Amino acid sequence: MGMKKLQWALALAVLSATGCTSTPSAGAEPTVAPSTSVAVARVCAKPAAGPAKAPAGAVTVDPAKAGDLAAKTKSSPAHTTFWLRPGTHRLDPDRYAQVIPKEGNRYLGAPGAVLDGGKKNQYAFGGSARDVTIRYLTVQGFVAPHDEGVVNHDSADGWVIEHATIQHNSGAGLMAGARQQVRASCLRGNGQYGMNAYKGKGRITGLVVEGNEIAGNNTGDWERRRPGCGCTGGVKFWAVDGADVRGNWVHDNRGAGLWADTNNNDFRIEDNVLEANDGAALIYETSYNAVIRNNTIRRNNWVEGRKAADRGDTFPFATVYLSESGGEPRVRARTDRIEISRNVLENNWSGITLWENADRFCNSPANTSSGDCTLLVRDTDRCARPAIATAPLYADCRWKTQRVDIHHNRFVLDTSVVKCAAKCGRMALLANYGTYPDWSPYQGERVAEAITRKQHNRWHDNVYAGPWTFVAHDPSQELDPAQWQGPPYQQDAGSTFRAGDGG
Predict the structure, then answer these.
(1) What is the four-CA torsion angle of 360, 362, 366, 367, rounded to 10 degrees?
(2) Which spans of this chain does the record mark as coiled coil (predicted)?
(3) How far apart (Å, rounded) are the C-alpha atoms in residues 258 and 84?
(4) How far apart (Å, rounded) are the C-alpha atoms in residues 399 and 425?
(5) Mind listing the pLDDT tens digit for each residue in 96-111?
(6) What confidence tens digit (pLDDT) does each residue in 351-368 have?
(7) How do residues 260-272 score in pLDDT, each as one tens digit?
(8) Which of 65, 76, 266, 463 is most solvent-facing, going by the fewest CB within 10 Å?
(9) What DSSP string describes 127-145?
(10) Strand (E) or helix (H) holding 225
């Protein structure tokens, strides 16, 4: 059997196993359901142990002496290695008694080494020193304020966090700077975020988040305390340019699992397991250019999706939610589109929603990213009438959901597992009717027409199992698969559908 025929036969076997037995047309590549064998990064249960003895030349830190770590850091030169003995280390009992590393310092925890803030210290490690490394250390019990973080509080560049456990802190467990690497660490049970990738000035470049377990964050339930704040989840990314987020286990967070919000660009989100988050597994909002592939995404959005349904909200709240985000060739990245491919989405509350708010653009009062404009306009003040109604500002003053390519994914829904009767199995491609402000050039159905038919958003070659429906153009248009595939939408060419509950 030739290679082409062998691939076709294997693909048909996979489709038959899922109950999707449509035969590909002559000469066409068959739709192949992706594998569900993505490894799970079970870091928190079995953290890696640090060195049992102090490395040569290291400064030893004694847990019996409160403040020893900060004091020895202050008295030692840059590029010093510190080894924290087994036991619970504490800082001086002042909220600003944090460790201020020097450039190139390394902090290594022995087995059982814990740095505990005792619910008195706000921050563990801060300052602007570059290239600091923290390994094999548990950091817990710090009380950072809302929107602030415990480790790398000042978002310094080049930090490496490996084999660390950052848990049970207020605020964010970890902040991020440029070129930061967070690997094989446990970020769990923090009050707001596991990590808040935010830098007050400039953009964060070259961020790596790999092989971590990010679980149970937002214990403070901030969306309830400040409705609509958009300030919660496993990880929040702001103005990050170039991020590799791979091989993580992001689960059981209150709110979203991963949330990229406002002018992020060039993300690769791959080989992750995103599961049992109360809200969406992934939100990509007012951002650009990403590859989202080979992820296992299951049992997400049950809490927030059900709440929306119970209050009668007809919006298709989804597990993967793209809001005013798309591919933009003029913004430099490793891709010029958003590609969502070879993922398994299983028993989530709904699937993928591509949305664009017609009233959200630069200088609009409806722009919740207050003060921010697109990456295509340097002077936000230019986005005003009458100039905004003419080229190029008409196109460039608005974040657009465009050039999104959704293919070779497997979507499975068993309503008996999700425990829902309706509105939990939707895909969507839509916008609202533009109304606001009164000088907006995007009023009426202009944006709904653009996102649906003119901005190169495309589903194709996917596998569906279960009672899926499709929302197109606006929330009132709910379609069955035949209507979704037919004119005028013509989506999901080459895809296969099995009605009823998936399995």
Answers:
(1) 80
(2) none
(3) 32
(4) 27
(5) 999 999 999 999 999 9
(6) 999 999 999 999 999 888
(7) 999 999 999 999 9
(8) 65
(9) SS-SS-EEES-EEE--BPP
(10) helix 222-225
